[in-house]
Design brief:
heterodimer; A: alpha/beta; Rossmann fold; 2 domains; seven-stranded mixed beta sheet; five-stranded mixed beta sheet; 12 helices; 14 strands; B: 309 residues; alpha/beta; six-stranded parallel beta sheet; two-stranded antiparallel sheet; 8 strands
Chain lengths: 328, 309
């Protein structure tokens, strides 16, 4: 296997799926001539031309809705939001239209569309550009919500998302685009299934569930805890809707304790959903209350020292694991 | 037109009886527009409408049985009881829905038009909405993209004078909405909607333009609904005189007068009326007798089946 960046993995997924299926096209702000605001779509215009790599005006509701309409009659659009923060002005298109029409038409109309783009905090881009959007979209039946942490999952899940017959909210990591990781060699096709979690690190003492940017914080914290004799088992859900809790429950039955670490705000969302499911499915196995390490319950501040304190830190993860382990 | 008229009257009666729930928006008074539109469209074309969607669905060929059963919340309805009055669908006939968020479906229409162009097909999309939609952002963004990319879509504003209960002069600085078209780089047209022949000719021209690859058109059609916004609206915001005046231009009566003028026998028209009465009565019986909407259908249509290889 070779190592490539998360950004390149996404680009390969789009390249391969566009080469495979003429119905797939990419649309969004600056995806073509500018080569992508975050360079995810770099080179795609040269390869596929203006017909299939389409720059739009700044009109998220318009082009998201246009994509939904095109998907309803058989195309397979990839709609890029320059960041997920801008999806809010297209929220109605995703929630009222994309997620509803299959049900409202009693299954007569499918919406095979992927909405993708960077999600979550970057660095010092403040309150309006730092939203961690999973809670908004995971609440909605009719959508898949995917948030890959690694380059391999980013590629394999984006390919699956593009081939899906359902609308997919695909949350990338603004700070993960440069992360390198192992991805199957060129010519080796891997479709990571939607709705399957992944064991990222084996351990016997405490289960940690995490995804997105904090996933890396957790892996680093797990190494430090290991040095102190606490072995953490780390599980990455990868898909947040539908949520696969099988590995988590299995793990908690072994470790008897669990910490969930996520960037989104603490009120509700997939983090709280995981707590709910684990306490129900593994209640008799728990030796401590489940704990969550989350983004703090504030609009993201600009100042770096404050931003660092809002996002989950290794220290907060270590503290939480020690608390549920009754360790000092 | 008579099918729509009688269907809507019967729907209102059954709503009053409690057989139909939710919101019910009637098309009475606007029939000529749907009928004319259905005439100028062909297979491979797409249609979008707001929640006031019974008229165009019937005009396009949906059976009154399937339409009435949907209102009754039955499994035999056009959306199997999952959509209701506001969400009729008939994909086989290119009718892609009644949509109930004002302005939210215009971009979808741009999307199906985009598909026609992308796939090098000559399909045209026609998208209906009320004058109330012309103030919301969804209108602006869809018109912008359609104009920019010269998409084969006809935007038809059915200006029935009231955005729910608020008259046009209190919602728009313009009296002539068709001039908005210019701002989106497309031609605008404006006409009265009570004469089906006139509407057919003018919509036909816009559809032909789109089909020829010349891009979108915005058509404002002046019309009037004889009932309130929905069944819960007694329409106290307008005068009886205004309503009576408008009823002088009832599209059904205008069409009838025209047919008589062309030499059609009055008895032939009466026969049609009787046939339609029987058809709608049968639709009500069909709806009454149908099985209720199914829980398993609801649960299995949240997501589409996957065939990922």
């Amino acid at each position: 296997m070779r190592e490539i960046r998360y950004r390149e993995a996404l680009r390969e997924a789009m390249f391969e799926e566009m080469a495979r299926d003429d119905r797939v096209f990419l649309m969004g702000e600056e995806v073509g001539h500018y080569q992508g605001a975050y360079k995810v779509s770099e080179g795609l215009l040269d390869q596929f031309g203006e017909k299939r790599v389409i720059d739009t005006p700044i009109a998220e509701a318009g082009f998201a809705g246009l994509g939904v309409g095109a998907a309803m009659v058989g195309l397979r659009p990839i709609i890029e939001f320059m960041t997920w923060n801008f999806s809010f002005v297209a929220f109605d298109q995703i929630v009222s239209n994309a997620a509803k029409v299959h049900a409202m038409s009693a299954g007569a109309i499918q919406v095979p569309i992927v909405f993708r783009g960077p999600n979550g905090a970057a660095k010092q881009v403040a309150a309006q550009h730092s939203h961690s959007c999973a809670p908004f979209y995971t609440n909605i039946p009719g959508l898949y919500v995917i948030q890959p942490s690694t380059p391999r999952d980013a590629k394999g899940l984006l390919k699956s998302a593009i081939r899906s017959n359902n609308p997919v909210v695909f949350l990338e990591g603004e700070t993960l685009y440069g992360v390198k990781g192992e991805v199957p060699d060129e010519g080796v096709e891997e479709l990571v299934p939607i709705g399957e979690s992944r064991l990222a690190r084996a351990g016997s003492d405490c289960t940690i569930v995490s995804w997105g940017r904090p996933y890396y914080t957790v892996l680093a914290a797990a190494e430090k805890l290991s040095a102190e004799g606490i072995e953490c088992e780390v599980i990455d859900p990868r898909t947040l809707r539908p949520l696969d809790t099988s590995l988590m429950v299995q793990s908690v039955k072994k470790t008897n304790r669990c910490v969930i670490v996520h960037e989104h705000w603490p009120y509700g969302g997939p983090g709280a959903e995981i707590v709910d499911r684990i306490q129900r499915e593994a209640f008799d196995y728990l030796d401590a209350p489940l704990e969550r390490v989350t983004g703090l319950d504030v609009p993201m501040p600009y100042a770096l020292n404050l931003e660092d304190s809002v996002l989950p830190t290794e220290e907060r993860v270590i503290d939480a694991v020690k608390r549920v382990s009754y360790a000092k | 037109m008579m099918v729509i008229r009688r269907f809507e009257e019967e729907a209102a009666r059954n709503y009053a009886k409690g057989k139909i729930g939710g919101f019910l928006h009637l098309y009475i008074g606007q029939e000529a527009i749907a009928v004319a539109a259905a005439e100028v469209l062909r297979e491979g074309d797409y249609i979008f409408q707001t929640y006031r969607d019974h008229g165009i669905a019937l005009a396009r060929g949906m059976s009154p049985d399937a339409a009435m059963a949907e209102l009754f919340g039955k499994d035999t309805g056009c959306s199997r009881g999952l959509g209701g009055s506001m969400h009729f669908f008939d994909v086989e006939r290119g009718f892609l829905g009644g949509w109930a968020i004002v302005g939210g479906h215009l971009a979808l229409a741009a999307g199906t038009a985009f598909k026609s162009k992308y796939s090098e097909e000559d399909g045209v999309t026609i998208c209906f909405f009320g004058e109330g939609s012309t103030n919301i952002g969804g209108f602006h963004e869809a018109m912008s993209l359609a104009g920019l990319w010269k998409l084969p879509v006809v935007f038809v504003c059915e200006n029935n004078q009231y955005a729910m209960g608020t008259p046009l002069e209190r919602t728009s600085p313009l009296k002539d909405l068709s001039i908005k078209a210019k701002g989106y780089g497309m031609p605008g047209d404006r006409l009265e909607g009570h004469d089906v022949e006139v509407v057919q000719e003018r919509l036909g021209a816009a559809v032909a333009r789109a089909r020829a690859g010349e891009g979108p058109t915005f058509v404002e059609i002046q019309t009037y609904r004889f009932r309130g916004h929905s069944m819960s609206d007694p329409a106290k915001y307008r005068t009886r005189t205004e309503l009576e005046q408008r009823k002088q231009q009832d599209p059904v009566m205008v069409a009838r007068a025209r047919l008589l003028e062309l030499g059609v026998a009055e008895s032939a028209l009466d026969d049609i009326d009787l046939e339609v009465d029987a058809e709608i009565d049968a639709a009500v019986r069909f709806a009454e007798d149908s099985e209720p909407a199914r829980h398993d259908v609801m649960m299995s249509t949240v997501l589409a089946e996957e065939d990922v290889s």
